[in-house]
Amino acid sequence: MTAVTLRIPDEELISLDEVASELNMTRQDVLAQFVSYGINKAQEMIAKHGNQEITPDNSPSNQTSYYLLNTNTQEGMRDQYNMLTQSCAAAFFDPAKRNIDRLKEGDRVFLYQNRVGIIATGIASGTTIISDYIHETDGNVYPNETHCQKLDSLLKDFQITLKSCKEITKTNLPILRAMSRISEEQGKALLQEVERLKNQK
User: Residue 66, SS3?
Assistant: First the structure.
C-alpha cells in the first residue's frame, strides 16, 4: 500500500470522522472504501461512454496511424491471452468491435492491460476477421461479435507502466477506453521506449 496525502476541507473532515465513528472504522479505512467505490463507478462510466466508435481516419493510406487498445482484463484474462498468443488486436460487441475495422494496413497498435501498462505492440494487417464471441463466464455464444486483425511483427514480454507512459509522452493517454487513436508523437515516443526495453534483453 502506498501513502498518499489528501487535503480535505475541515467541515468534510468532521463528517468523515462521524461516518468512521458510526461504522466503527478508522478514518483511513473509510477513505480507502470511498476511493475504491469512486474508482469503480468512474470506470463504469468510462466503459459506458468510452467504447464509442472512433471517427474515420482520413490520413493517407500509406501513413501510419497509432492506436491504443485496452485488453479489458476486468472481464477476465482469456481475451488478452488470445490476443498475445494469436498475435492479434480484438474488440467485442457494438460499438467497440467496429473500431477494429478502422485499422488499415501498417497502423501501429499498442495493447494496454489495466493496472499493468502497455504490454505488446504490433502492426495491423488491415483485414478484419469476424467470428463468434464465447462468453468466458457463462459460455453463451454471440454470433459475429468478435472483430480482430492480425498484428504483424508483434513485440511483447515488456511493460510500460502508466506512470512511464505519461513521462515518455508528456501527456495523459486514454487508456480505459476500448480503443483510441493517439497522436503520431505519442505513438513514436512509445515505440521508441518499446525498442529500448527490448534491446535491454
Answer: strand
